[in-house]
Amino acid sequence: MTELLAPGPGEVLVRETPAGPFTQEVRVGLHTWVADEPPSAGGDDAGPAPYDMLGAALGACISMTLRMYVERKGWPVESIAVLIGHEKVKVTTDDGMPVMRDRFTCTLTFTGDLSDEQRARLREIADRCPVHRTLEHGALFDTRLAGEQSSE
């Protein structure tokens, strides 16, 4: 097996570890952490599961987007917290077919003296964070073997 290099800008390296059946080392720039599955899925719970990390990415992006917005507006927000929930739900497509979809629930909490109008505006802005938009609109994927050229 060829040793992978450190991830470059815009890249994340994920590789198995010998620690457990699903334990993964995740590397981004200078940061390293562990991902795993919970025991109910056969893992050792050595780190967050993939959907937990996706929820964390969404929550962090929403919070950062809101912080940028309130700073630009000069609004008195002392702190922002975002609670992300994830579940699979059954929905019916336009052609009447039942399918399972992912639903993320985002609960926003603000500390600061905000009007009802400001709070409503922040709710709108939360849905405009880049990760939310990516999840909402979908993404393109290009999966290839190491050494292969991009399909573009």
From TrEMBL:
Transmembrane segments: none
Highest taxon in the source lineage: Bacteria
Pfam families, per the entry: OsmC
InterPro entries noted in UniProt: KH_dom-like_a/b, OsmC/Ohr_fam, OsmC/Ohrsf
Name recorded for this polypeptide: OsmC family protein
Organism: Actinotalea lenta
